[in-house]
Amino acid sequence: MRSESLSLGLVLERRRVDHPWQDHAWRPVAVFPGDPEGEPWRVLREGDGWVHYFAGTLELELHPKETDGYRVNLSQQVPLVFVVLRPDEEDETDHDVVPFLVTACPHEAESYIESGDEIVEGVPMPEAVLAWVTDFVETHHVEEPFKKRKRKPYDPRKGGFDQGRGGGHG
Length: 170
Known about the structure:
With 170 residues, the protein is α+β, with helices and mostly antiparallel strands. The chain is built from three helices and seven strands. It has helices spanning 67-74, 106-113, 127-140; strands spanning 4-16, 24-33, 42-47, 50-62, 80-87, 97-103, 119-124.
């Protein structure tokens, strides 16, 4: 079993906000398959108070052991590609965020939400990416049978249940 990857272009929005500590906010708005010509951070569209940038490309990697997460995502009414943005602490760009990761696994995305430092948002999965992820899951998913733990009976002479699992509780 091997991993597969697909290049995704990222579109980020910078929107003016009314907030005492910041004048704008970033959020991903779209991804698309491929690696387009041109420099990252070029303006794609702008409107009153917002700008959409092509922010570069990242590889969406699929791993055979994560197919359960992909299946959860695919079962949603609108499957998502989750985009993780990190603060630009190195001043690599003129922008204050750097695209860090794209994933189709909601469990992986959730692990980045917990840190609180990154911006993590899902964007609708394009049809071509949806077909690719679906094919990957159909090819690599192995249903894991549910294994119920066998409990040991209570033994009052030992002071509780299975003493081998620590704590004496079953």
